[in-house]
Amino acid sequence: MVDLSPFIRPGDTVFLGQGTGEPQTLFEALVAQRQTLGPLSIFMGACFTDILRPEHRDLLRAGSYGTLGTTRALAAAGALDIYPIHIARIAQSIMSGAIACDVALVQLSPKGPNGKHSLGPINDYMRAAIAKARVVIAEVNAAIPWTYGAELPALDTLALTIEMDRAPAELASRPATPLETAIAANIASIVPDGATLQVGIGGTIDALLGCLKDRRDLGIHSGTIGDSVLDLIEAGVITNAQKPIDAGVTVTGSLFGTSRLMDAARENPAFRVEPFEYTHAAGILAQIPNLFAINSAVEVDITGQVNAEAANGRYIGAVGGQIDFMHAANAAERGCSIIALPSTAAGGAASRIRGGVDMVTCARADVDFVVTEYGVADLRGRCLRDRIRDMIGISAPAFREALERESHARIGRGF
């Protein structure tokens, strides 16, 4: 096991590559050596391994921009500090010093066609962490793809480099449930030929892409994509032909999938893994007139306010990048912003369409459509009274009467 003690000091803040970009061997060494290295702070994003567990908080204080994957268990145990920040602003916060970064542990691809390494499947804030950190330690993993867009300049300041051939952390797709399929079919009814999609990951998105096989010339410009995008690329549905920028290229900030997706993107100029400062940038997104931003939520109130972060006092989501994409889709000439979610939670015992939400992630004015398994609420150009009627119409039938009563009380108070 690599010895990290010459490089890491007690009290340091250590940034780790996230998701499929996680440097697993270095992370394992950090956790194993925490008694001699610590106490330390760790900044991590999405995590698909269980290397860091709640019991490790004895000397490792973990922080993240949200919960995705195994970080949700850390948050539930009170072992994760949450930074409510737009994901595309993290790099700026690192460079300004607002978020400390002393050490960067990063996974790199082998050198590619240009003779330089790349960040491979994810091009997030680790570029800024590499630039800012006192110490940068890299594991060069032959198993991850060299990707266009994620190329790095010459790395002359690496304190330590280790080489390996280890399967990266993966996020495999699973079969969509009937509920997810029903929601997906309703989303698909909104998406036209030629749309440029911002999508995330998960069963509903997988099901949605499966519903779009009869469309033509779809494009992708997204913060994250998974394996299911490949089905539409291989079927000739995703061509990116109608995008005014990056024509013919699938653009994303991260590949959250399996070896199938990694192999497709390896040294492939038809894929670009761009920095979040590009994928989420207002000036870039403004050049896409047919942008359809499709995002999820924990709950939505009867006027369209969106909570994508917390439920029952527990943080289970993130601010992420959806607000950047929603604003751009609102402004797009032929675009729209879509929030999709099941109508209920807790096995049907609680409604996700509520009179009011506990936390507002996205304002009601930024939402064009809300979609559940019961239908589509088109909120564009609607007054509050009409929004409430349409939102109740896509709620679960068992909760509609109670929502009607609450809506009457709210309208009576004039909001």
From TrEMBL:
For the keyword Hydrolase, the answer is yes
Keyword annotations: Hydrolase, Transferase
Q: Which GO terms describe its biological process?
A: acetate metabolic process
Q: Which residues form the Acetyl-CoA hydrolase/transferase N-terminal domain?
A: 61-158
Q: Where is the Acetyl-CoA hydrolase/transferase C-terminal domain?
A: 257-406
Q: Which family does it belong to?
A: Belongs to the acetyl-CoA hydrolase/transferase family.
Q: Which protein are we looking at?
A: Acetyl-CoA hydrolase/transferase family protein
Task: Name its species.
Answer: Sphingobium phenoxybenzoativorans
